[in-house]
Design brief:
The protein has 11 helices and 13 strands. By secondary structure, the chain is α+β, with helices and mostly antiparallel strands. The protein folds into 2 domains: about 5-150 and about 315-335, 3-Layer(aba) Sandwich (Aminopeptidase), CATH 3.40.630.30; about 155-290, 3-Layer(aba) Sandwich (Aminopeptidase). A hairpin with a 2-residue loop joins β3 and β4 (about 70-75). α2 packs antiparallel against α8 and α7 packs antiparallel against α8 (about 215-225). The protein is globular and about 60 Å long. The protein starts with a strand and ends with a helix.
Length: about 325
């Protein structure tokens, strides 16, 4: 039996889609229908929920965003310039299959999705990011360009002391010697979501770099998703906000989505070391398996992230078509 690709409605089929998301390996809260609708609204794109079925059994999910401006049409996952957490294709009900059957099912699902995209949208450009999805060979076989990207992942295993002992000497010292009477690390609220995003925005502006993620969008996602999907960890000294990290949480992974930038204030507290430690420690306590530091491609930032002794993992950027459309989209978003 072949795999049939169906397009689900983002609103009327949201409950079914979310149920498949919850059963699929490698998804995160940004795959949920409510988060996808917000991404489409924020980026001025059209959302298509591609789902693959073998009979009545769901076998794959591929949320895509269609961008159209004049003669230019592009297809993206995640949405262009959205700064969302990982998207791309995901599969389900394949873990127990033997290798040959799993390969065949994944290929038929992706071939069906790519055929639908070509026939229904015929984009000039496509760009997908496949993160917790290893088998990108069908994209290669369909003549897409596949480039490796990298991230750091800390395994949340052993005791809290075991986890801390794996850190570099300075990180261990910063955590163990911090004066609990001076600072407070806590999980904040929707107002802290905005504070974290605004701090990141100021950091980018000071470096002359563009940053497209709005505080309003981050707050909307925080409020729309189930409780605990987005966790704003904040550091306060004397009650004042000094820094924070927005954490995205799936059933097994915490993702360091936004934040953790150099703080505005000059204090004798290793704010980001303490924030990352609390995120990891709390994840370990609740039985999560991984802390994805989200990115390992910038040497200056890598030096900080590497102090937690993470593993290097590979994900992939998959493209096809005309170059330069990213610039057009960037200009469009700035005007919006």
């Amino acid at each position: 039996m072949s795999v049939e690709v169906t397009v689900l409605d983002p609103r009327h089929d949201a409950a079914d889609w979310n149920r498949y998301v919850e059963r699929s390996d490698g998804t995160n809260p940004f795959y949920r229908a409510e988060a996808l609708r917000l991404q489409a609204q924020d980026t001025g794109t059209t959302l298509h929920l591609l789902a693959g079925f073998k009979g009545q059994e769901a076998v794959g999910l591929f949320p895509i965003f269609e961008y159209s401006k004049g003669p230019i049409t592009g297809v993206f996952s995640p949405a262009p310039r959205s700064w969302s957490c990982y998207l791309g294709p995901s599969v389900l009900n394949v873990a127990k299959l033997k290798r040959r059957k799993a390969d065949r099912r994944i290929r038929r699902f992706l071939d069906g999705c790519l055929e639908w995209i070509d026939e229904e949208i015929s984009p000039l450009y496509t760009k997908f990011v496949a993160a917790e999805f290893e088998d990108v060979r069908p994209f290669v076989w369909n003549e897409y360009d596949v480039e490796p990207e990298y991230t750091y992942v800390v395994d949340l295993e052993g005791s809290e002391d075991d986890l801390l002992d794996r850190f570099s000497g300075d990180a261990r010292s910063n955590v163990r010697n911090a004066d609990d009477d001076v600072y407070a690390i806590e999980e904040g609220d929707v107002a802290d979501v905005a504070r974290i995003i605004e701090q990141v925005q100021r950091r980018y502006e000071n470096q002359g770099r563009s940053f497209h993620l709005s505080a309003a969008f981050a707050q909307s996602v925080y409020e729309a998703l189930p409780d605990g999907s987005i966790r704003p960890y904040v550091c306060r000294v004397d009650g004042d906000f000094l820094g924070g990290i927005l954490v995205v949480e799936s059933d097994r992974t915490r993702y360091r989505w936004q934040g953790g930038v150099k703080p505005d204030a000059d204090v004798d507290v290793a704010i980001n070391d303490l924030l990352d430690w609390h995120v990891m420690r709390d994840g370990l306590r609740t039985g999560l398996e991984r802390y994805d530091l989200v990115g390992a491609g910038v040497p200056s930032i890598n030096r900080y992230k590497a102090k937690f002794n993470p593993r290097l993992e590979t994900n992939y950027t998959i493209t096809s078509g005309s170059f330069g459309i990213d610039f057009v989209i960037d200009t469009y978003r700035k005007r919006r």
